[in-house]
Amino acid sequence: EILITNKNIILFIILITITATSFAQMKVFLRYTPEGSEALPTITYFGKKKITDKFHLAIYTLVTKKFSEALVGFTYAPKQWIKIGLSSGIENSAATPVGYRFGSSLWLKKDKNSLFSIFEKGDGKDNFFYKTTYKHKISERIHLGLVAWRFFGLGPLALYNIEKTDSTLWITPLYDFEFEVARVVLGTTIKF
Prior knowledge:
Blueprint lengths: L5 H13 L4 E10 L9 E9 L4 E9 L3 E13 L2 E12 L5 E12 L2 E10 L5 E10 L4 E8 L3 E10 L4 E10 L4 E11 L1
Antiparallel strand pairs: 1-2, 1-12, 2-3, 3-4, 4-5, 5-6, 6-7, 7-8, 8-9, 9-10, 10-11, 11-12
């Protein structure tokens, strides 16, 4: 059962409306584990709208079977190679009612290398999330890298860009040291 309520749908529509005519991307991915090969369908949406050359309004939403969140914030880019973001919003899970969520992000880029890191904190001691992705551009179509992703694991990352559809296919075999389990995540990112 996906946690979709009328309030979440209305918020999602408002956020998409705000970001219309700006940059947006959607990710859909599946997580497989050896003990059950259960797929975890996940849909994320990220959008941003330019306010000034250095400031953007940023919107992020995520929906899974057991968790959903919506964050709104700002990114600041003092130089072309760095972006810093802060956001706040709401979360909802099968275990807890609607609560608060705060997020921060850092993006760095130099030549063919980029690093993107996010950290989120929700209500409760163990209610936090992080993801750091390093990518190296091998060619226009191929990127290789590493990812550290809470609830997923640590491991290599391979991405393949499909220019005709402005999308990317990616795969990452991971080992989760927190839960001591191997996983494989396969996904696609679509820009629009």
